[in-house]
């Protein structure tokens, strides 16, 4: 029991450290930032302005399995965040931005929904999708194969296949620069799920 809690806390701390960055601040929505920069005579960074990213995975395999379905919208890492967010509906709290502790990286912007947080790079590209009840309880966010909060290890393996690593606390998959990390609760059900694409230029 204590080991599970420690494992979950450590995973959450590592994810939070990488996503929250060195100096968080509330910056409002990307739309507000875009409008402000347009009024100032400049344009907000666009996905097309981003340095070329390596191809993380094909449209099959893990890349296809980690597509997310929420409020009738299907999306994944590498998609343009502003276009996805515009279709998802109301957030449970305002989006915010922070500077990650990675030399040369720009601000990351987070969008909060019931049971899900989306993180986008300075180029408006989704780099991380996290399922948890940290910002509002909800289990509507699922992968296209129906995996989400409350799923079991057997359900995940039936949908995605054999994981790269597995223990009593969770399991993980990886393909190129794309990863899926799952942490289980005491009943062996998903309490957090993180999809991350390290090829997205920060």
Q: How does the overall form come out from the CA principal axes?
A: globular
Proportion of beta-strand residues: 25-35%
What is the number of helical segments per DSSP (H or I, 4+ residues)? Answer: 5
Query: What class would the helix/strand composition place it in?
Result: alpha+beta
Q: Provide the helix percentage.
A: 10-25%
Main sheet characteristics: 9 strands, antiparallel
In N-to-C order, the SSE pattern is HEHHEEHEEEEEHEEEE
For the termini, the CA-CA separation is: 36 Å
Q: Note poorly predicted spans.
A: 1-21, 23-59
Number of domain units: 1
How large, in whole angstroms, is the Cα Rg? 17 Å
| Overall average residue pLDDT | 79
* Number of separate strands: 12
Q: Strands of the biggest beta sheet: in what spatial order? A: 1-4-5-6-7-12-11-10-9
List the helices and strands and how they pair.
Blueprint: H1 2-20, E1 23-25, H2 30-39, H3 62-65, E2 68-70, E3 73-75, H4 81-88, E4 93-99, E5 108-113, E6 116-120, E7 126-131, E8 142-143, H5 153-160, E9 165-167, E10 170-175, E11 178-184, E12 190-197
Antiparallel strand pairs: 1-4, 2-3, 2-8, 4-5, 5-6, 6-7, 7-12, 9-10, 10-11, 11-12
